[in-house]
Amino acid sequence: MARQKQYIEAEVIEKAMGLFWRNGYENTSMQMLEKEMGINKFSIYASFGSKHGVFLESLKSYKKKISSIFEKLQNSTKGAEAIKEFFYDSVDVCHKPGNHSGCLLTNTYNEFIESNDQVIKEQMTTFMADLKTIFIEKLSGNTNKDKQTIQKQANFLLLAKHGLAAASRVNNPKEIEDYIEMTFQVI
Amino acid sequence: MARQKQYIEAEVIEKAMGLFWRNGYENTSMQMLEKEMGINKFSIYASFGSKHGVFLESLKSYKKKISSIFEKLQNSTKGAEAIKEFFYDSVDVCHKPGNHSGCLLTNTYNEFIESNDQVIKEQMTTFMADLKTIFIEKLSGNTNKDKQTIQKQANFLLLAKHGLAAASRVNNPKEIEDYIEMTFQVI
DNA sequence: ACTATAACTAACCGATCGTTTAGTTAATTT
DNA sequence: AAATTAACTAAACGATCGGTTAGTTATAGT
To answer: Which residues form the HTH tetR-type domain (chains A, B) (predicted)?
Structure first.
């Protein structure tokens, strides 16, 4: 063939992800992406097709980044306690002081909830629905709660994720811990 | 003098507020504002100076809109129960199905948290700080909780506002009620 | 009725948005 | 070493961004 790529796609996507994570989709420009990813516009379009394509790959990369804590949650036999551990694990991954940005998926969910971008909207809806399913499964695990209570608690924890995202964005570790502990007093 | 204004500033700001509420600041363009406010760019700039100015006035209008439920909270003697009522009142104001947009201030807080716009950032920080102060006051009101517990609970409720905003944006009234009730089980 | 003045319309400003493309550089293959 | 081909640089694309301004219209005071 000919000249080889001077960059690794997975690496530059990692950097793009950080930018989207901090600023959101709309507030991230191609100019910023060029600078952060360290490659030219041409290369970005050659590899990912569009800004939208870069974002989709960034979301994929983020999901991969957090896949281990999802698997841990899914494989756990600790019931509701597993969800609490999942909350703590989420903070470990998302709470990067100086880079504090909450959860990329929660941020994206909020940014696109009123948008016309059906592709991303559907991804976010699916993500939330999947998470709720896992919550329900774990909440049903080691107790004999009635179905209605489980539904309520799953909804509550799903919404609590927004509080957690806000907490991990601005608060100190102690306050985050307090928030998680108080949230799970209800369960 | 001369020709009189063909619009009422308070009225067009009300419409601008709705637009910002639905779409956020960055995703609202001057073109959209012209259409929604029903007046020309010239008039917008004559009355409010800039897009930023329109947004600041919209925030002012929103605060005015919710001032009554704040005053009710502040004047209540019901302690923690007053905060719960405030949550319900917030939903009454913010949960407009078909126009569902959560809380403008919480939305704005989230949109500007990583921004360089110090003016709006400070307004949001001040709003959150003021709300926390009121929460602390109410939580201290009719009990003899220790100060540490009060601090924790105030932080918890402040973060729960993000969950509530998310709930009032997408969920049905029953789910919103469940979320509030479960939140206040902790208090 | 005339004049002054403010509110209006509409065209236009430079800057930046995401995207494309012409032209150059470097590595692979023959 | 020459030819090929893909990765690069950099300039430019049309569209839209927030914002401005020349020119027109309508109303108030004299």
So the answer is: 6-66
